[in-house]
Design goal:
The structure is a single chain. By secondary structure, this protein is an alpha+beta fold. It has one domain. It has 6 helices and 7 strands. A hairpin with a 2-residue loop joins strand 1 and strand 2. Helix 1 runs parallel beside helix 6. The relative contact order is 0.19.
Length: 226
Amino acid sequence: MTPTRRHLLAASGSALALAAATPAWADARRQALVDDALVAARNVINDKEFPEAVRNVARAKAIMIVPSMVEGGFILGASGGRGVLLTRSGPGNWSYPAFYAMGSGSIGLQIGGKVSELVLILLTDKGLEALIDSKFKFGAGAGVTMVAVGAGVQAGTTTAAGADIVVFARSQGLFAGASLEGSYVDPDNDWNALYYGAGATTRSVAIERRFTNPGAEPLRQFLARW
């Protein structure tokens, strides 16, 4: 074999190896978020401070899990995180997760920093449709009823009666004046396509169920208890 041919074969082999490795590398951030969502779901649903969580998951239309919602600032506050949404069509029958971005910005008395695990339980079709296709902003004008439960999240009641969305939050750190008012969640179809393949969208993953990824099986199996 001539040196030139040997070099070409070596270069070709290196290119094929790189091409094979690239999808796994590109998936790393998405898979890490799915894995973190499983940890956060276990932490919140199994937390003895949230006895209503299991009951609400069992009658949920969908669940959104944000493993790490970070807030911090002094006077000018901001927050951000990423999460996943899974829909439920019956007992133990959960979709694969669709990806979302979450964040907010606010001005007021905001001191310190906080990291929260958030689990949003969507109890009605109205609540699910509000989040499924476009950016959704929490607030009085959102058209859905939300109840927030947990340290660091403002709520007047822990009952889910009549609520479209119930939010459970486990928080670490001090963040005076923080709430979900004004926060938004936004479908991230770029992340969906990177995790599932071309054409994957929030609706095609979570509603139409046309895409799968074995990396999400542990999360689905945990939720399949309900």
